Amino acid sequence: MEAGNIIKVEVIQKNEDNLLLKVDENVEAIMKKDQIKEGVDINDINVGDVLEAQILKFTEGEILLTQLYEANEEVKENEVEEVERKEAPKESAPGINFDEIKNELETKKEIKVVVKNVVKGGVTTTYKGLRAFIPASLLSDNFIKDLNEYKDKEIDVIIKEIDEKKKSVVLSAKDILIKKKNEEIDNYLNSISVGDEIKCKVKSTTDFGAFVDMGKVDGLIHISELSFNKDKAPKDVVEVGEEVEVVVTKINKEKKKVSLKLKELKDDPWKDIDNLHKRGDELKGVVTSIMDFGAFVKLESNIEGLVHISQISNERVEKIEDVLKVGQEVDVRIISIDKDKKKISLSMKPKKEYKPKEKEEEFVYEPQRIETTIGSLFKDKFKDLKFDE
Q1: Which of 8, 30, 352, 374 gives 20 to 30 Å between its CA and that of 388?
Q2: Residue 258 and residue 283 share a domain
């Protein structure tokens, strides 16, 4: 057994991440979840199934396999061995500098090779006197439909495994491609900032939001940042391929994730708020959430308003949950609207108990001019008074 060989194995145990396979009576092997054939779910493989698999790694203590074919599909026996035998280098073992090759393995040095042959499960070539095998799963970071497009093509690879006894190596182009892609993503994330406005195209929709293509990375618009109508599914708000304007709200460079919001939310009722609501309107609404300070109520316009704890009842409310429940329909009255902050304050108190303060008329004191003389004030006092001549 050696890397690249195709063998038949039987599934004897499984869990969420791995399959334990029987190679022969005395040998067992592991197949990791990410090495299972493209399009095959590990949950669809059952204990007792027979698989055609290829050896990725073979040492005395470990055999690592990848599934390449449907169970029991016909495979030409020893096909890989025959191709590799034809390519076997003429150099003898003493002419191979394994110390140099091991150093290239440890330092992950990028090397160039030319693909010579296409075999089931990958491609083969030679490198410094060694037979070299590149599994299809390590040839690209994307699924490859036809391996023949790589024949006679020069590619950049690194060494993944060395088998001195078999004078062979396993190479990988995928590691280099992923490394370069991550470097491009890092550079892009360093070039954008929270608050940036970007035009993107919708790539896909899910139950929790929509993914958009930002060029080097996909960004997520959470469902709460798509539309004011939270009852609408993302697929009913935006379409795949639609161009949208987004605003960056969060950048996680470590996880290479970007959170976004639509520059203008779809179905925004605040655009027509003057025609929808005014102070004093009596409406019905549904309680959507309860906080320590009050309850949020969604109106028929899909705008949410806050009923402060002091506006729930005439009686003192200690615990809102004792009075209101999420989903409960309630009668409310608008007591204030803040268009700039997009906030509406509501009251559940009976109308007669709520008296909005009117602007009080200011009292203005204006002093009056009094026309008078001392004589007119004291004329009665002076009428009998005599003066000496």
Answers
A1: 374
A2: no
Task: Give the integer Cα–Cα distance in Å for 192 and 312.
Answer: 45
- What is the mean predicted confidence (pLDDT) over 29-44? 73
DSSP state of 75: -
- Asked, for residue 102, whether it belongs to a domain, the answer is yes
- Is the pLDDT at 363 greater than 50? The verdict is no
Residue 142 pLDDT: 83
pTM exceeding the 0.90 threshold for the entire prediction: no
Range of the domain at 324: 269-351
Is 115 exposed, middle or buried (CB count within 10 Å of its CB: 0-12, 13-18, 19+)?
buried
Report angle CA 67, 124, 20 to the nearest 5 degrees.
20
Q: How sure is the predictor about 262, in pLDDT bands with cuts at 50, 70 and 90?
A: confident
- Spatial neighbors of 316 by CB under 8 A, at least 6 apart, are none
Q: What is the pLDDT of residue 220?
A: 93
Q: What is the dihedral of CA 303, 309, 311, 316, to 10 degrees?
A: 160
Give the residue among 183, 172, 201, 167 at the shortest CA–CA distance from 90: 167
